[in-house]
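Practice problem 4.
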């Protein structure tokens, strides 16, 4: 077996991307000269590093459990990754396993062979194994890893799987006017899928290839599409890419504009409500307001001291931005300094969102906290601590004053790497529901347009749909790859999701 350092670096780089550490991946890619390697990323399957590690663990376990005569006895407890790379731990497990095999062959007075556990104590560890069950006694089945009521599981036949992307699909978003679903992938393309109600045909797809000029010709950028957003009318789609360019596309797949000013990957991009400006955030520590009609940079803001990770419009000409520098700035067009700055997080700030009225700003961070800010004060209104790991994203419900659902309370959802989603009553600053059915990090949450349901997507490959009133699980679907993004169509009848295995899928809730 042989491998090059370039191959190792690329697989580590891809793992960082898939895990959501986009700015870390960018830095690692620069330092390891990924762009200078001749590796075709489209040929590397998702989760390559994890697959290699799993195979390595299986090989190490096989060394322990397979005897010289080729017979195998199973381990009573799976080997951890740290144990597998620690020679003493492997040796201890080998000794314990050999003692276990001998004890089973020759049971002593300390062990019973009547369907109970046999425990063998060595100098360093105690290993317990399930003894053989007598003939005629049924063997209990292993517990399910996810306790989901069978009646709410959505069968695979009820999902429409959209295949075409050649790498992981990081993002997806519904058109606000029609059932067009956009997706963005590591294969350097975005795609527009026509999901209109026409059961007789396979959904059409438009491929939006992200190309750059090289040697007088257009060639694929080979960079991830990191962000996308529809304008308010649904006739234009903006995309942001790791190649440093933002692009504007028509719904027929025509490239309308290429926006070039950032020096490095774009991490986030948003249209304002009026549809005349686009806002972007980049690894170059800057945010830019673009004129959508001309494609020109209207103003570039250079207030962060580290990569800008997220942006969100407050009004049609003011916005907030957050960064790995732990700071949040509120800026306004044609003003040359922030109109407000918020400090309080102790680690990088992953996402920010204004409430529907633009009065409260929510932020979440790797410091495991969720904070609520107001333009009326310098310190946070609420400092919400409940998650046990990093909080990746947040979303406000489309409810309360100033929304189409004014008689429902405003709530905030947070998604964390601790595998949970929490729903918060922001007015009281309390958690009202903790949603716990996921078993891996949760990367995305999205409210239905009426605010009654919340969709969540996790790397456990599941999309869960919850009642926001009761916190109960209403529907559950398990796909074939880790879920990066979930989104609802404008009518609240369909949920789209994008996955690490290159698939996009749509759940039509009217068919359930």
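Answer key:
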């Amino acid at each position: 077996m042989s491998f090059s350092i370039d191959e190792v670096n690329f697989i580590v780089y891809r793992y960082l991307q898939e895990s959501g550490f986009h700015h870390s991946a960018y830095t690692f890619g620069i330092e390891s000269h990924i762009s200078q390697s001749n590796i075709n990323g489209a040929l590397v399957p998702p989760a390559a590093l994890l697959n290699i590690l799993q195979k390595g663990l299986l090989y190490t376990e096989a060394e322990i459990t397979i005897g010289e005569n080729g017979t195998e006895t199973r381990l009573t407890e799976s080997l951890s990754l740290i144990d597998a790379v620690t020679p003493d731990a492997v040796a201890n497990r080998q000794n314990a396993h050999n003692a276990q095999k001998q004890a089973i062959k020759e049971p002593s007075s300390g062990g019973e062979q009547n369907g109970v556990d046999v425990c063998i104590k060595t100098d360093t560890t105690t290993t317990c194994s399930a003894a053989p069950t007598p003939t005629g006694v049924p063997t209990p089945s292993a517990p399910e890893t996810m306790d989901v009521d069978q009646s709410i599981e959505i069968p695979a036949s009820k999902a429409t799987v959209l295949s075409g992307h050649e790498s992981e699909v990081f993002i997806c978003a519904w058109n606000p006017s029609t059932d067009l679903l956009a997706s963005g992938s590591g294969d350097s393309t975005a795609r527009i899928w026509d999901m209109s109600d026409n059961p007789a045909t396979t959904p059409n797809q438009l491929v939006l290839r992200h190309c750059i000029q090289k040697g007088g010709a257009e060639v694929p950028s080979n960079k991830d599409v990191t962000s996308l957003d529809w304008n308010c009318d649904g006739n234009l789609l903006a995309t942001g890419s790791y190649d440093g360019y933002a692009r504007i596309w028509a719904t027929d797949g025509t490239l309308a504009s290429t926006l070039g000013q950032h020096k490095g990957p774009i991490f986030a991009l948003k249209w304002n409500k009026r549809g005349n400006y686009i806002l972007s955030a980049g690894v170059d520590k800057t945010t830019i307001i673009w004129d959508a009609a001309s494609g020109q940079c209207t103003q570039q803001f250079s207030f962060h001291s580290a990569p800008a990770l997220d942006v969100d419009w407050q009004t049609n000409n003011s916005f907030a931005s957050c960064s790995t520098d732990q700071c949040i700035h509120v800026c306004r067009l044609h003003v040359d300094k922030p109109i407000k700055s918020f400090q309080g997080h102790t680690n990088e700030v992953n996402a920010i969102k204004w409430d529907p009225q633009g009065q409260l700003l929510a932020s979440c961070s790797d410091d495991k906290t969720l904070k609520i800010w107001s333009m009326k004060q310098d310190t946070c209104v609420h400092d919400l601590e409940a998650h046990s790991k990093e909080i990746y994203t947040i979303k406000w419900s489309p409810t309360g004053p100033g929304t189409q659902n004014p008689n429902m309370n405003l709530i905030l959802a947070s998604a964390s790497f601790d595998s949970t989603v929490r729903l918060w009553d922001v007015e009281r600053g309390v958690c009202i529901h903790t949603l716990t059915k996921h078993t891996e990090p949760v990367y995305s949450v999205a409210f239905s347009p009426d605010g009654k349901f919340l969709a969540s997507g996790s790397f456990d490959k599941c999309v869960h749909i919850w009642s926001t009133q009761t916190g109960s699980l209403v529907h559950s679907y398990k796909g074939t790859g880790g879920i990066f993004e979930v989104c609802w169509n404008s009518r609240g009848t369909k949920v789209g999701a994008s996955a690490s295995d290159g698939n996009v899928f749509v759940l039509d809730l009217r068919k359930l």
